[in-house]
TrEMBL record:
Organism: Tupaia chinensis
Keyword Nucleus: no
Xref: SUPFAM superfamilies: EF-hand, FKBP-like
EC number, UniProt record: 5.2.1.8
Pfam families referenced in this protein's UniProt entry, alphabetically: EF-hand_5, FKBP_C
Keywords: Calcium, Endoplasmic reticulum, Glycoprotein, Isomerase, Metal-binding, Repeat, Rotamase, Signal
Signal peptide residues on this chain, from the entry's feature table: none
The PPIase FKBP-type domain, residue ranges: 1-49, 52-151, 175-262, 286-374
GO terms for cellular component: endoplasmic reticulum
Database matches in SMART domains: EFh
GO molecular function, one term: peptidyl-prolyl cis-trans isomerase activity
InterPro entries tied to this protein: EF-hand-dom_pair (IPR011992), EF_Hand_1_Ca_BS (IPR018247), EF_hand_dom (IPR002048), FKBP-like_isomerase (IPR051989), PPIase_dom_sf (IPR046357), PPIase_FKBP_dom (IPR001179)
Protein name as it appears in the record: peptidylprolyl isomerase
Length: 467
């Protein structure tokens, strides 16, 4: 038998005939093998090893990129043989005695995505006793391994593949509110989430614990428009437990695109690109303005344009007709001036945005050209006299001399004064509504007519009566 087994391969089958002189001879084995018996063996070689054997490694798939290979004390997640059927990886530390010695050796130097066959002799596996269940004693073991993930508990995040815009006026810092798109995957490329699929950015404060620690750190120092890959080890991600589609102890890969960011303390930003030589008359509260604008997001996405519509946008400054940041950005302009106004969301459309038009928490960029300015009236006034007020004002309005003035008479008189340049209505408002309010203020008893007793000039009493 010693001779017959030499040269056999594992899984080889031999039929062996042994004459008695090379077996049990003339004595045989009492009660089992008679004297001078020829023996016949049907042999199948199941396993073989040598005391000098080492772990054997055969790599049959290796990824093109291997930024890092497993080292002693790394934590790895891998599939082997039947683990695929259980849909669960085997997760362990490498090289520090958590595995049988041969597996500890066989996993060292692997790359994520690599596949290898690791053959382990029994004295580096479960030895003479086996594992007491499925593995017999003195068995060599063969593992078909696919490495999915690796990290070291000392790892910090890593940032890769940065694409930074040429114009980066400011980088994000702790306390900023940031809007960004991302694709999230595991180290082996398994996809788990994407903001693109929801067609909405992920919006959050950074550096303050609103996101996992690795993202909190990885989003610091970015520019608007920047793209970067952030690799987050599990102790800075979702830890040993994982979450949802993310398995426990998984390294996470986020490919992000920064859309915009701001700080809640940010004011508006004004950049003047052109001012005409004569720029002495500057816009102020109450002035009526006509201007063109392009409105866009920080990433350049166009939201609206009066140029495209072919008509100006007209407002009374300080009357609440535009968002506060725009009201602030239009002040101090002269006709013909061109400027860019950047408005943070708390001075724009806030967290809600405008459904279907402006995203929530968006920073807005307005490119503005002021075309016309009509000076407004002093605060609190909707009508003023440009000339001296007639001492016989009531009699002039009461043309029929009946001692009372109706709305029609009052309106006709005020419009005549405006047309002649003697009086001025606040620009940008409904003139008829102003006149009606003026009349109502004089009609003390509300009977639809103003008598001489009710009629008083503004400077004759403390109330704000326009006349």
């Amino acid at each position: 038998m010693d001779q017959a087994l030499v040269g056999m391969c594992v899984n080889e089958r031999r039929f062996v005939t042994i004459p008695p002189e090379l077996a049990y001879g003339a004595e045989g084995v009492s009660g089992v093998i008679p004297p001078n018996a020829v023996l016949h063996f049907d042999v199948l070689l199941v396993d073989l090893w040598n005391a000098g054997d080492q772990v054997q490694i055969h790599t049959y798939l290796k990824p093109l990129a291997c930024p890092r290979a497993t080292q002693v004390s790394d934590f790895v997640r891998y599939h082997y043989n039947g683990t695929h059927n259980r849909m669960k990886t085997y997760d362990t530390y490498v090289g520090i005695g958590w595995l049988i010695p041969g597996m500890d050796q066989g996993l060292l130097g692997m790359c994520v995505g690599e596949k290898r066959i690791i053959t382990i002799p029994p004295f580096l596996a479960y030895g003479e006793e086996g594992d007491g269940k499925d593995i017999p004693g003195q068995a060599s073991l063969v593992f078909d391994v696919a490495l999915l993930d690796l990290h070291n508990p000392k790892d910090s995040i890593s940032i890769e593949n940065k694409v930074v815009p040429d114009n980066c006026e400011r980088r994000s810092q702790s306390g900023d509110f940031l809007r960004y798109h991302y694709n999230g995957s595991l180290l082996d490329g398994t996809f788990f989430d994407s903001s693109y699929s929801r067609n909405r950015t992920f919006d959050t404060y950074i550096g303050q614990g609103y996101v996992i620690p690795g993202m909190d750190e990885g989003l610091l120092g970015v520019c608007v428009g920047e793209r970067r890959r952030i690799v987050v080890p599990p102790h800075l991600g979702y830890g040993e437990e994982g979450r949802g589609k993310i398995p426990g102890s998984a390294v996470l890969v986020f490919d992000i695109h920064v859309i915009d960011f701001h700080n809640p303390a940010d004011p508006i930003s004004i950049t003047s690109h052109y001012r005409p030589p004569d720029c002495s008359v500057l816009s102020k509260k109450g002035d009526y303005l006509k201007y063109h604008y392009n409105a866009s997001l920080l990433d350049g996405t166009l939201l609206d344009s009066t140029w495209n519509l072919g008509k100006t946008y007209n407002i009374v400054l300080g009357s609440g007709q535009v968002v506060l940041g725009m009201d602030m950005g239009l002040r101090g302009m002269c006709v013909g001036e061109k400027r860019t106004v950047v408005i943070p969301p708390h001075l724009g459309y806030g967290e809600a945005g405008v459904d279907g038009e402006v995203p929530g928490s968006a920073v807005l960029v307005f490119d503005i050209e002021l075309l016309e300015l009509v000076a407004g009236l002093p605060e609190g006034y909707m009508f003023v006299w440009n000339d001296e007020v007639s001492p016989n004002l009531f009699e002039e309005i009461d043309k029929d001399g009946d001692g009372s003035v109706l709305l029609e008479e009052f309106s006709e008189y005020i419009h005549a004064q405006v047309a002649s340049g003697k009086g001025k209505l606040a620009p940008g408002f409904d003139a008829e509504l102003i006149v009606k309010n003026m009349f109502t203020n004089q009609d003390r008893d509300g009977d639809g007519k103003v008598t001489a007793q009710e009629f008083k000039l503004k400077d004759q009493e403390a109330q704000h009566d326009e006349l």
